[in-house]
Structures are given as C-alpha cells and as structure tokens.
C-alpha cells in the first residue's frame, strides 16, 4: 500500500490513508514476480477510487461501473477504470488451506508451459486477474468463442503458479457446465492444448463418471455435481474459485447453485471468488442478485464487477443472419411457408426439406473457401429429429461427412466433430443444444438453426418432468449464431420467418418456473440452511408460493417429508424422512425414485429401475403407429403377456431388446430390423438403456445395491406380485376402483349371449340391420390380420343392432402374478375372446365401422329377399364350418328380453333356450352388392354413415378415491394396454383396483396413464391404503363391533382440521379388518422404514436379505388371509346419530413430534394407534342374532319391530313390512352374503388359523428399537 501513496497524493488524496486489512496480499507483494507486481501496482496507483480507503463507494460510481460506457474509449480502458472498487471479505488467499502443493504443480505441469495468446479474451487477461483479486463476484460477458470457458481457469492457474512463484498454495477451481458433454469435452480440449494428461491438473466429473486425481486443480463438472458437493459440505472453504459457465441457460441446478453460494458467502468468511460467465445473460439482474449489503461476512457494501471482455464487433470476421422467408425468396426454394405458431412448436416438414436443399445445393455454391470446405452446424431439438435429417442426407454421403452430436453419442464419436477432413469433403454436424455453448468447432462456416429446443417442464398430463419441444428464446438463438465466424466469415440460416422471430421471448424462462419443484425442494431441504419457502424466496427468480406448497404436499404424500415440521403440522415445510434422503440423490421424478426404493426393500429392484427409466421419457417403447392404432394396440397386448400393466410392458420389451443387442444382433442394421419387426422404438430403448445404467451406478453410491444371492432360486410369479405391491406403494393415492355393473341390464343388452365373445354395433337403420351384413363383415375381415384368421363370426341382426359373436380358442391370457397369493381369496376370472378387445378398440380409433345406406326402395326390395330366406327355415340350422353366419332373431317384437343361447357349461349360467333363424347367404348376391357400392350405384346413398360401437355391456369403468377427484369421470389413456377392460363375471361382487403412475384432471374428467390392473384380491385396495398412506383415522361401527372404513390423509390438527382436504381419501372397507390386521400392518410399516434407514449401513449383506424375506412374508400373511366380505359403507351418507359410527381422533405419533437431532430423519411410514380393540368374533355373534331374528320373522315366529329391522349382513335400510323382508332374503345378494358368512363362521369354529397376537405400540417399538 505504501508504494501507492505517492500516486494517490498526486490525485489530491489523503496522504495518510487507512490501511486495507481486507487484502493482506496488497500490503505484502514480495511473493509476486515482476509481471504480477507491475499489474498490481498499476491497478492500485492508476485506477483505485478514493472512497475505497474508507470502505465506502459512491453509488453513482458503482452504477457506472456496471453500465456499458457510451464513450468511444476502448473496452479495455472502460474496464481499467473499474478494476478495483471494494474489498469483498476479510478472508484472503493465505487463509485457504489447500492440499495441493503449488511447487509440485509448477515442476510437473508448468516447466514447458506456453500461454495461449490466440484467443480474443487474451488481451483482457491482466484486467480479469485484477478483478479476481478485488471482487468476490465477477460477471464476465463475452461473445461466443472468445475463449472464456477454456482460458479463464488457465489464467487463474498461471497467476497462482507462474506470476507468483513464491505462492505455496495452488488454487482449487470448479467450472460448471449445464451439459455433461460440454464438461467432458472442454476438459479434454484444455489438456490437449497444454499437453496435459486428462485427469491430472485438469479433470472432469459428470454424474458418477470422474476423471480427476489428487493433483487436479481445475475440475469441469455439471452444475448438479457441484450442487451435491455444496449440499454435503455446506461450506465454501474447499474452493478458491467457482466458475459458473453458460449462466444464461437458467436450468434448475444452476439457479439453486447460485442461491446456495450466495447464502454461504453471506454466512462465512471465505476467499472464494465466484465467476459467472455467458455471452447473453441478464447481467444487471445478476449484479443486483450478488450485491451484498454490509453485515455478516461483509464489512461494507459489496457489488459484483461486470467485465465485458469481447464483443462480436471485435471479431475480424463477419456473420450474416438470414431468415427462412429471405432464404426462400433469394434461393427460390419451392417449399411453402409453414404456418408457425408460438404456442405450438413443431418441426415442419417444409423446414426439414428446405434444410436439405441448403446443405446439398446452396451452401456448396456459397462456400468459396479455397483450402477446404467449411463445416455446417445444424441445430435440432432432439435425437429423433437428428435421425430424420440424417436419413434424408444419406443419399449425398459421398461428399458429406454427417456427424451426429447428442448426449447419447459416445466420446469417440463426439470427438470427430473436431477432425479436419480432406479437400472435397464437407462436415455436416447434426447437433442438439449441446453444441450451443462451450464446444467450439473452429471451421464452422454455416449454421442452420431450426430455433427449436427441448426444455424440462412438468407434463400437463403425466405430471412427470419431461423434455418437451419448445421455441428457443432470442438469447439462445444468438448463442447458436455465435458458433460461426471464428476462422472465417459465417452465415446463419434461421428456419423461421423474420416476422415470427419477433414473437420469441428475449430470454429463456428459468427452469424453476416451469419444471416440477419436488426434487429441487428435497435438495433445498438437504442443504439445511433454512425453511423451504425462505430458501426459494432468495432464488434469483423465485417460484410461486402455490407451486412450492404443491411440491411440499406432494412430497408429504409420498413420504419424502413428514407431515410435521419441528413437531407441528405444516403445509409449507416438513422434516426430512429416510425416504426423502434417499430419493433426493436420484436425478428422476420423485415418484419413480420411490418406486425403485420400495422395490429394493421388496427385493425386486432390477425391473423397477427399467420402469423408472422408461417413464422418465415422454414416449412409449412400443411405437404408436399413426394411422394404424389397432396394430399399436395389438403390439401392446402381445408384449403385456396378460399382466394388464403398461409398466410390465416396459420390462418385457427392455429385456428382449437387451438380449437381442448383446447376443443376436450386434450390427446396427440387424438390431433396427429387430425393432421394426416387433414395432419397437429403437432410439427410446437406447435412451432407457443409458438412463438405467446411470441409475444403477447412482444407487450403488447411496448403498442401494442389488444383493447377489447365487444359490437362491427366484419365483418369477412371486417377484411380479411383489413388484405390483411396490407400484401400489409408489403411486398411492392414484387408485381407481371398479364400478358395479347392473346384472339385469347386462343380461338384457347381451340377449343372454356369452359376454366373453360378444359385442354390439348400434345405429343401423331400424329393422334393416340384416341388410348390412356384408358391409360389416368386410370390415371385420380386415381386422383378422391382427388375430388368427380361423375365428368364426356370427352376425345376429336385431332391429337396429348387429350382435357380433366371435368363436375361437384365442382368449386373452390371465394375470399369472396373482397365483403367488394362492388360496380361495381370489375371485376367479374367465378369459375374454381376443377379437372382442380388438373390436372394442376399433370404436376408439379413426377406423370406426361405417356403412353405405340403401335408399328406401332398394332397402325394401332387399328385405323381401332376406325374409324369403328366413321363412324357408323352420328350425335352427346346425353349425357349419363357415367363416361367418348370418342369423336373425325370430319374433323379436314379441319379447325383447329372451335369451338366445342354450346352456353353456363354460359360461356357467343357466339360460333359456331361444331359437334364432340362420339365413343362408348367396355369395354371388353379396359380391354384386359390393360391386355396385364401389360404382356409386343409385341404390346407395352417396355419403357413408358411421356406426356407434362396437360396445360391450360388461366394460369396466372406474371411480377415483381421492377426495378432490370424486366428482370426476375416469378415462384410461387410449394408448394404454388397459384402455379396454371387461368384467365377464359381472354377477359376482367385485372391487378391483387400477393404479396409475400419472393422472391429469381437466373439465370434470380424469385421464390416467401408465396403468396397472391389480390382482382381483378381496380387500386389496383397503390393505394397500392402510400400508402406504401417511396417516389414517379408522371408522368404527360400535353397534356391529367392527371397523367399517377409514379416512386417509396427510395429518389433522387438534381441531381435526386436515392439512389439505384435497389430499384425503375416504374409503369404506369391503372386507373385515381386525385389530390383529392393524397390528400386522404397523409391523410391516416399521419394517419398511427400517429397511430404508439401513441403507446408511455399509455392506448390510445377509441381515438385509433376511429382513427383505421377513417383510415379504408379513405382506403375504396379510394378503393370503381369508377375509369376511362386508357391505361397503359410503362415508358421505353415514347416519352418525343412529348408525353407531365413530371416527377415530387423530393424534400425531410420538416419533413425529419433538426436535429432530442433527443428521436424523423421520420414519416415512408412521405407526398409527387405534382407539377400539374389538374381538374378531364379536361381529359374527351380532350378525348371527340379526339373521336369526330375520328368519323368525320370515317364517312368522316373530313380528316385525315397530321401528323395523335392518339386515346387518347386507347393510340395508330399515324394513317394516314382512313381505319386503321375505323378498330381501330371497335376493341373490343376500344369498351370496349368507354363503360367505356360513363359510367364515365354520373357519372360526374350526380354528383353522391362529390370529396374530395383538401388540401394544410400546411392544411394537421394542421389537424395532432402531426406529426410535
């Protein structure tokens, strides 16, 4: 400082300035070499501002230091005048404790070191280093390709190791990149430039792939990697410099990273220098964000320094931008102008065709580069679009070298973009936005930009984070355009019109404002620097409070956060659970992470990883063929193999693909043919394969490994069943229950025909359905290509309907996984004819049944012909080996409800015999009919008519259980394997459950996607809810001495007010649940929590495997138990005064209240206490007395009480009339209930099973002391 007093005096300053204690380095410059001292003295003497000496800065000067100057002074002079303003913190470089020896690095890596002076940024080197010395935060704004990414870290190394030879400590520098390929390729380029080995002094870390060693001073990494390091360290002490590159992209990890660094800089005194770099960022917003007032670690107001190090105007080469309308006009392209829509991004075919014309014909004419042809860089939104354009360009590959650049491409293939080609060959690089920044290909002369990208958003349908097509922002298009004009003049072709481009947003929207917040919320929670809302509030662009609340409640629902925060219920925060701690480390949606974790504790983790990888993308593995939806549906039916699960389709397809890839089809072409033959999406499968491999590696890092058991023989059916339980656990409360069918209406609609073979077409002209036999059968014949052609079809003409009966042995397979839960608890289901499913699916497609109607006179003449045929037959003609038969109902007008088929043993229902008339068909007459239709004969109306259906009265419909969805109708995704579901045993009581991985509500309807139909086990929805809901309050019937239902939710306060009623589920039980069951459920919940907590134990080995087996046995014991069916209670219509119902009061379990020790987590499945302890037999004693009284009334031994009597077995209303009581006793419902009652009483009396002993809560906790 003394060296500068003379200079300051010449400026009229105080000759006795106060010392600067914040920068010891400025008081002692002996360890600098001559160059560093000169730079230091110049910056102190010539450019220091007078107010610095008093640690105050005139705000006008600071403001001026940020804003670009309008004078003609060169940029370097403008920068010089603001190079030092205020010392940021009391920490300095000497305080940093580094394990890296500067002397060792100098000897090994800098003995023959040569500075790179060829980049545009080099002339700002000294000025940048001055800023790094003087500022905590430096914002570097420089044109693309100026050398920011590769050179700034090297300047810091040169300054520390060469310019300051006496400095004993080496810096530790982390440079973040938004993309993996950028981090890896830049690290390699820096090493190649200085002849360093990759992973020595410069390395990289992307995900779990790390190339760095003990001597690494510069680490290039993704933002997520450094984010996780800061979450673990909660300190900046381990870093000297953090460089956030490409800050304009505003991905969630980068925004969270800046928030955490900002928070730590305010809390601790560290030497850290934060450098933020981009070519197109909002510098003023960043400047305001990183302006620190006096206090905490800062003794005075501290403002970042903005360094404009390079502008496009400084380049010696020019870049010309042309839009699609100008390109079309100038180069006379024949393609029409696409209809661009800012709200509906699309890669139009015209854009693609025009780009091919540019690459093949126009660019070679424009390329006047004499030595070799310049490369063309094409920006496309994704790999599918790359493949599409690649195929179109392959016809010209003799002069083109086509190079795809995508994150799934191998490192070797990525490296070819930098190769120099021989004369006469031109590189065409087909890239996604990974080539937008950080990767510089010097010989790029032409850029074709479709102005499209894929951004992470919350899918409006699935609610999962998805990469969705979107138009670029202006800053991103500018960034792309900057990839040319490096070595020569460049041209940028933007494939949108200039008018449409004006509608683009100026800056990219921050990901935290569009993507789901659940994973970001968990990362903030792990950071432990404050409440969730307060931490989100200090993000540079905070999300809405409602979005934060929704994310918190969703995390509570899945068990990642407890319902309590610091012992109290909260809707905006919660304590971290052991599940939340685990899933926060995985880079996928939290529900899918939970699926993996739950599958791991049930010992079925491998298939769950595949499911999670498949659902993390937004396309189906099995192709959805446009224009042939029936083929797509047929393919999914084949792949589902009777599992009735879209998720199991993923498993089977992936296993077959992996096997084919590894063994049979090693060549790309053969594997592509394999995928085409089986209607598979090859690209999607490669993406799934890559993500699944990464998930396995990440899971191993958190000790979630697949336990090797070489001597164990796996039970496939049992594993499939356990995986379905994991699905129930992961996607609760996306449960949808089957609606009951009206038995009489169903029989009437089918005319008593076998429902497993029959569909009905509606909308035919009245009393003319017989005339359209040939037209409909032609369309049926077209469907036979999807099934076996030997199917025989009966066409029954019935008034305005056509009843189609399919006769073959090709039935839909059963769900075999339910066999694992052997016993009479399964309600048997008959298989349905496969053709029935296809016919019903046809009604949902754009290939519906259609007829050409006869005009009136032609219809009358035709009916005479068929009536003559009909009257010649006096009895039923025996079945013949014909592909189809035409039948007409006899005397239809006499009785509209008579049954047509005789007794059918397979159907198992006694049906009345009714004759129908089979009409013999004259093939020549039908062929003539077809000919005249094709010739537009006047006997037919000119326009076709679509028919309604086919339909089936046994189609299954579902109802939601979630409170906020109760009034909505449920639609299964048309692309799902479960879009058509039938209930052939419609006379049996049934409450089967469909579980959806994703749900979307809109306009009174719910669309469910990625569904799984659970095995038809009595009480399964009840048991799954009791096992996996966070909290529940049991509904007791004190008169009947049983549990009749429950209210499930996130918790209730002292006044019984829920955290959010929308997240409640009110479920009436359809089976008897006893106190023994509740105790066993509590044990299972504790065991699941314990198994997740055990992940912190290294090498758990055999004990973990034993506990997995124990958990599976507990679950099987619950599910295999013979349960007495009870009438489901509608909780919305309960008689609270006279019905004897009592709803349990909610008390927060002891383990969820009180302070949480540092580093500890809550149990993700709390144990719920119960209020009543009814004996299992008490209900049967009451029911037996009630039935005895009813029987006596029926036979006249007793009179009906004045208040009437209810049948408690069937849960009827009070009956006063004896005749009504007698009628009820003879109903099928009462008969079925009575049979179940008698069988269950016999079981109890024989004591064929031993009830599980009731455990008190204290006893339960003593069994698992590690849960406390």
Model description:
- The chain has 1268 residues and is α/β, with parallel strands linked by helices.
- It folds into five domains: 2-312, Rossmann fold, CATH 3.40.50.300; 319-454 and 472-513, Rossmann fold (3-Layer(aba) Sandwich); 577-740 and 955-1017, no CATH class; 757-810 and 856-937, no CATH class; 1178-1246, no CATH class.
- It is built from 41 helices and 35 strands.
- The strands form eight sheets. It has an eight-stranded mixed sheet, with helices on both faces. Strands 9-16-13-10-12-11 form a six-stranded parallel sheet, with helices on both faces. Strands 25-24-21-22-20-27 form a six-stranded mixed sheet.
- Strand 30 (993-1002) and strand 31 (1005-1013) form a beta hairpin.
- Helix 38 packs across helix 39.
- It is globular and about 110 Å long.
- The chain starts with a helix and ends in a 5-residue tail after the last helix.
Can you give keywords for this protein?
alpha/beta; Rossmann fold; six-stranded parallel sheet; 5 domains; eight-stranded mixed sheet; 35 strands
Query: Whole-number average pLDDT?
Result: 78
Distance between the ends: 61 Å
* Class inferred from helices and paired strands: alpha/beta
What's the gyration radius in Å?
37 Å
CATH fold call of the largest domain? Rossmann fold
| Residue share in helix | 25-40%
**CATH structural architecture of the largest domain:** 3-Layer(aba) Sandwich
Shape: globular
Q: Look at the structure and name the CATH superfamily of the largest domain.
A: P-loop containing nucleotide triphosphate hydrolases
Estimate nothing, just give the exact number of structural domains: 5
| Largest sheet descriptor | 8 strands, mixed
Content of β-strand: 15-25%
Give the C-level CATH assignment of the largest domain: Alpha Beta
Q: What low-confidence regions span 5 or more consecutive residues with pLDDT below 50?
A: 1-32, 40-92, 873-884, 890-915, 1248-1255, 1263-1268
Q: Provide a count of the helices.
A: 41
Secondary structure: number of strands = 35
